[in-house]
Every structure is written in structure tokens, then in C-alpha cells.
Amino acid sequence: MNTIHIIGLGAGDLDQLPLGVYKKLKKTERLYVRTADHPVLTELAQEGLVYNSFDEIYEKHDEFAPVYQEIADTLLQLSEEGPVVYAVPGHPLVAEQTVQHLIQAEKAGKCQLLIEGGSSFLDSIFGALRIDPIDGFQLVDGTIMERDRLNMDQHILIAQIYDTFSASEAKLTLMEKYPDDYPVTIVTAAGSAQEKLQTVPLHELDHAAEIDNLTTVYVPPTADQQERLKEWQTFRSVIAKLRSPEGCPWDREQTHESLRPYLLEEAHELLQAIEEQDDDAIAEELGDVLLQIFLHAQIGQDNGYFQLEDVLESISAKMIRRHPHVFSDVEVDGSDEVVSNWQAIKAQEKPAADSLLEGQERFSSSLTTSYNYQKKAAKVGFTWSDAEGAWEKFEEELQEFRNELANGSKEDQLDELGDLLFTLVNIARFYDLSPEQAMVQANRKFRSRFGFVEKKVEEGTGNFSDYTLEQLDEFWNKAKLLARKGE
């Protein structure tokens, strides 16, 4: 089988290289190195060591991923002609993507690997920074670093920071969570005679004088919770604190039932912010809605029934299950087929209901419940063929309501009013209009215009009783006119 012998060159200079590794390098005939830019190779070249580097491959690609893949593929081809020795910086199994590609090839039976030598740069980094990894640390690849995977209360070491561009990319990712002036330390050639540490504000990371393939960026853990406000875990701990015995008496008293009106209120405030296209308000109101979700999750955890992880597992599994065209090999032709598949999968998940209307009630909104009922009934053909039938029914119900107002009891009047509103909801359904949203907008419009009337009264006598209905109606019409002009 094709053999590739992988040797780690360590993180320092020749003095730190194990004697056995030194001897192997000196006697090998087919030596390839990922990069010649390493102090060990510089010194060995002066002793006459001959090797081939893959530095030219870096020049062919704009990203690192294809570089590493091409190096691995080239080594596999070379191994077909005989054993190959491949030297990499540090330890072969620490932050070395080319080796990981070769390991996958070995698992597929394409080669046999021998791996040895080379201390990783981690020991030298910990020593240079005087930190204990037992406190918790993350080692991340700067070329594929993701904001959501960074834990701000741990030591973070960012490898693969080769140049100003990679430093800039890392900086931009970090600035999505950390303050612009957060101190970060640039560690160069840790453990060698050229070791250098430079601490700079985060926004200056890509302006440092020395950044090369021996550079590691260190981000210290945040000491203050106020600096971790962009982390999910921080928000969760805030809610847990509020619900704790040492927390807030009001928050401790809340239940799923007592929080219902607040969730409704926050949802409507979010809808208003969306309607007004106010991005700042949308962000704020989303936070208020999120507060309600976390409170309910914390109550579930306090009561021992469920916790936030169960909520996340449930919704994540549902999204994956109901989007087979995204997470599986199902193909769809447009959003209509997506909706159709969604409904079919949903039907399979839930046991057959006794009624088509089961589960359509919305205790918070009779309008929405009515809309849902009629939409479900319409799907099985229980509806007029067009809106004209709904309009005729509306006229019928309007006349019946008027009749009851003239002669009927309060109970009968209430019953006919319900029929009339139900028919209005049906008309809204035919025109694909949300009756709930229509009422939200109507209420908002009334409040705004009546506020203008109040302002005019306040500017006048300050007393509504001093004005006739015609005068007040004039203020109202003025408010309508101004609204149409966008003033």
C-alpha cells in the first residue's frame, strides 16, 4: 500500500526538534513540506537538506480549503511511486488540514500513514501567555471561524492567521461579538528565540507589523457579564437569575398562564414595528418576544417538565423533517409544492383528529379562530364558489341583525352580531386579507386620529364638552387628510 510518513517540525527552531526526527529528515530522499517558511527548515537548508515545498500551490487559489485539498491529492499521487515523507509545522494532528484529508484517504484504503514527531504550538502558546488551559480554551481555524461557535468566557486561540487579509477576516468575525477596543494578543514564533507578543485593540488586529505563518491570535475571556450580552448563554443566565430565590419576586411568581397576556402584547408590538418598517424597533420588540420564550422555557425547567434544549430540539427536528428538499434528496418545483409537502408531512406526524376544525382555535383572537375555521372548511369544499356568495350572505346577516336590534333580546342581538362578523371574516378570506391584521391597523388608525382630535381640543379650551360633534368631526377629517399626505 502507498505509504506517507508524516513528520511534525514542531513550533520552534532546530534546537527544539527531537533528535530522532532530525535524523529521519536528514536521511530521507523524498521529502515534501507544506511550506518552506519554518525556522527548522531554514536551518536545515543551511546544512544541505533538500526538500520540495508546496508553497506555489498557495498562489493558485484564493481560499485555503482548495490549497489543502490539492496538497493532499498531490501527496497521494506521489506515494504511488514510492514512500513519501511529508513535513508540516507543529504537530501533524493539531490544526493541520492537509493531514486530515490524508487521514480520510487512509480510511478509504487509498494509503497508509505513519505519523510522528513535533510538539504542537499549543504548549509554547500557553507558556508565552502564562495561561492554564484547564480554565477552558478554544482552538479555532481563522480561515473558517464562525461567530456563533466562539465562547466568550473561554481562552480563544486563533490559528491559521497568515497575513493581513486573514487577520482582517478574523477581526471582522470577532467584532460581531466583542467590543472594537477589546484587547487581543498577537503571538509570533512562540517558544523560539524570535518569540514576540503584541497586545492591540481588536480594531487594529490587521494593522499589526508582523503577521506570518507562525502567528496565533489570542482572545482572553471576558471578565464582565456586561461584555457578553451578545451571547445566548448570557441571556439564559439572566433569566435563570431573575427566577432564582435571589432574583426578582415578580419573575418568580410567574406561570405559563400568567404570562399569556404579555406574550400577546409583545407580539402585537412587534407586528406594529414591522408595519412601520422600523428596524431598530423590530430588533427591540424581537428581544421582548424572546424574553417571553426564555421565561416560559425557564419555568418549564424550574418545574422539571422541559428546558430550553428540549424546545430547540423539537423545532430543529421539525424544520429538518418538514424541509426534505433542503436537508434530504427530495426535489420540489416552487413554493406551492413546498407548502403541499409541508401539509402532507404534518398530517403524517399528527394523529387523525375527530374534526377538521380541531386545533384551529386561538384563544387570544376570536377573529383568527373564525378565519381558521372557515379556511379549513373551504379546503373540503364547504364554501361559496366565489366572493359574491359571501357578499349575499353578509347582506342577509346584516338585515337579520337590524331586525333583532329592533325587536329581539340582547342574547339574540349578540347572536346575530356574531353571524354578521363571521360573514365579514369570510369575505376577508376570499380576498386573502387577515381580519386580525385589519383590526390591528384599524385600532392603530383610530388611536392616531383620535390623538389628533385630543391635541386640537387641548390647544383650544381643553374640554371636550365645549365642542359639538360636528367640530370634533372636523378635527377628525383634518387628521385623515394629514395622514393621506404622510404628515
From TrEMBL:
Family matches, as CDD domains: NTP-PPase_MazG_Cterm, NTP-PPase_MazG_Nterm, YabN_N_like
Annotated Pfam families: MazG, TP_methylase
The NTP pyrophosphohydrolase MazG-like domain, residue ranges: 254-327, 395-449
Entry keyword Hydrolase: yes
EC number: 3.6.1.9
Keyword Phosphoprotein: no
Residue stretches making up the Tetrapyrrole methylase domain: 3-205
Keywords associated with the record: Hydrolase
GO molecular function: nucleoside triphosphate diphosphatase activity
Protein name: Nucleoside triphosphate pyrophosphohydrolase
Classification of source organism: Bacteria, Bacillati, Bacillota, Bacilli, Bacillales
Designated gene of the protein: mazG
